[in-house]
Design goal:
- The strands form two sheets. The protein has a two-stranded antiparallel ribbon.
- It has helices spanning about 1-30, 50-70, 75-105, 120-130, 130-160, 170-175, 185-200, 215-240, 245-255, 260-270, 270-285, 290-295, 315-325, 330-360, and strands at about 35-40, 45-50, 300-305, 310.
- Helices cover about 70% and strands about 5% of the residues.
- About 25% of the residues are buried.
- The chain is mostly helical.
- The protein has 14 helices and four strands.
């Protein structure tokens, strides 16, 4: 009993010290406190940042405290937490904590290194007074609508082709998926060459599709569909191959043709696949950045928008946030735009999933 009490005391002490060390490391990082420790061992000199050591030691103490806690009933839970801890810790450090830190910075005049004062909601009011930001927001929504429709339609048609009884189906699957393996930056520059040099010769045109704002926007949509449709196609292929064969045979015996079988049997039975694919295309289209950067860099003239001439006719929201931070050093303003971007994406995604799930029940 005494040993159990001592073990419990040691466990609680490790947990408390570990949490304090983690808090100290996060405070030092947030307050920009840099402390270098040095250890001399003979001719060997070792240097390290103290806050990094505090972070590691604190995490290890928390793990040790959880493992040493003398609770037979909760031992399995403690072991599960220990195994999940690396993933949860990484997620917290790279996602959760930066989210709240970024939310704080959005209320400051942060320049990427330090901030001198709190500005309240000034960054949020400023971004809504910028015609260039409103334009980027509008064309991003337009881009998302077009791509949600086109990517899913093209991907579903390709999936139907790749699940048919044609010869060489494996080759078609690999060929359609291949564009998704090419990085967005490389893909953008390759298609920039195609639009500027190849298509102008084939169409005998003196100007590229990228020279005009409207055609450049259409070109971005085309490249995105070409790149992403193969990935979504594989998800549809997986869904279509899970449709029971006996159900299809029964429909064929009852006299259902291919079109009836598709709309009355296959599509209702893979309703969950449509939910997944629409969610993926929605989030991916909203976050479009690399192809937009490489293909047009957001350039394009808009003669009269809210009474202003704009030069960012093809600049979507992610690229607008990037340019606000790195081109003008307005990191606080960029962070406010990023927070709004997160809220819009979260709300639209939840609405889409809710509608799709309701549709699944109806089907």
């Amino acid at each position: 009993m005494q040993a159990s009490s001592a073990k419990k005391t040691l466990s609680i002490a490790c947990l408390i010290v570990g949490v304090l060390l983690l808090a100290a490391a996060l405070f030092m990082d947030f307050a920009k406190i840099y402390v270098v420790a040095r250890l001399d061992v003979g001719i060997l000199t070792v240097r390290w940042f103290l806050r990094g050591m505090l972070l590691i030691v604190g995490a290890l103490l928390i793990l040790g405290g959880l493992y040493l806690y003398p609770s037979v009933e909760k031992h399995r839970t403690m072991i599960n937490i220990i195994f999940l801890f690396p993933l949860l810790f990484t997620f917290a450090v790279t996602v959760i904590i930066p989210l709240f830190v970024g939310l704080f910075y959005s209320f400051t005049d942060w320049n990427g290194v330090v901030f001198s004062k709190m500005v309240g909601f000034s960054n949020y009011t400023t971004m809504f007074s910028q015609p260039s930001f409103i334009w980027s927001l509008l064309i991003t929504f337009l881009f998302v609508i077009f791509n949600m429709i086109l990517v899913n339609v093209v991907a579903f048609l390709l999936a139907l082709l790749c699940t048919s009884k044609l010869k060489g189906v494996g080759f078609f699957r690999a060929a359609y998926f291949l564009p998704n393996l090419i990085g967005g930056i490389v893909l953008g520059y390759v298609w920039q060459f195609v639009f500027n040099n190849v298509l102008t010769v084939l169409l005998n045109s003196s100007s590229s599709l990228l020279a005009n704002t409207s055609t450049a926007f259409a070109a971005i949509i085309m490249v995105y569909v070409w790149q992403y449709a193969g990935y979504i196609m594989l998800i549809y292929v997986t869904g279509l191959t899970t449709v029971p064969g006996d159900v299809l045979e029964a429909a064929q015996i009852d006299g259902a043709n291919a079109v009836t079988t598709l709309f009355k049997i296959k599509m209702p039975m893979i309703a969950s696949t449509f939910t997944i694919c629409t969610f993926l295309t929605l989030t991916s289209a909203f976050k479009q950045f690399d192809v937009n950067l490489a293909l047009t860099n957001g350039t394009g003239s808009v003669s009269n928008f809210m009474g202003n001439f704009l030069s960012n006719g093809t600049q979507m929201l992610a690229l607008n946030i990037y340019n606000t931070a790195y081109a003008t050093d307005q990191y606080g303003l960029a962070q406010a735009k990023a927070i709004l971007f997160f809220i819009i994406l979260a709300c639209v995604s939840m609405i889409q999933v809710r509608i799709s799930n309701k549709r699944e029940v109806e089907l």
